[in-house]
Amino acid sequence: MSATLFAILAFGFLLGVKHAFDSDHISAMSTIAAKTKSLKKSALFGILWGFGHTISLFIIGAFILLFKITVPEKIALSFEFIVAIMLTVLGIDILIKINKNKIHIHKHGDKEHYHFHSHKFNEDHSHGHLQTGKSLLIGSIHGLAGSAAPSLLIISSVSSLSIGLFYILVFGIGSTLGMVFITASLSLPMIL
């Protein structure tokens, strides 16, 4: 492997890790990862997000490389709009769950205190199969949106189809590892 190719792939990996830290990715995955008290489950959610993200990016990238096309701005904006709708729905879902909290009164000896308490989060109610599918879907939708555009610009300048597809996979591995770190970190407060 030439030094230039290695540098391009290393840059793709690092760009993938950085890409996972985009605020829209963190916002979307926080709605899932914060619901579990299992580091293993939250890491799985990150892996599935990364897999979905990489698959959709790989498909788009393959079309770009094979047919030497550019994605029209209207289509790119419509994908961004879909991500915005998805983030809004996830936010509304969290607000609904927060509203289900109840104020409880507790006594410890002579002292009485009040606090919000949710029975929903007392145990691990993450409904694993629903959350895993949700993680995969969120990742896939984010893979369609334009925040991965720097990656697609780089592959459009690559002359080899195999190098371009390999670059996307390396980028995907980087973003997956970044998201595993993020989802695990987001679940730590619930675990602790």
Descriptive notes:
By secondary structure, the protein is mostly helical. It contains seven helices and two strands. It is elongated and about 75 Å long. About 5% of the residues have low confidence.
| Gyration radius over CA | 20 Å
What integer is the average pLDDT? Answer: 79
Number of strands: 2
Main sheet summary: 2 strands, antiparallel
Q: Measure the end-to-end span.
A: 45 Å
Give the percentage of residues in beta strands: 5-15%
Low-confidence stretches: 119-127
Widest sheet: strand ordering: 1-2
* Secondary-structure class: mainly alpha
How many helical elements? Answer: 7
Helix content: over 70%
Outline type: elongated
Written as H for each helix and E for each strand, in order along the chain, the element string is HHHHEEHHH
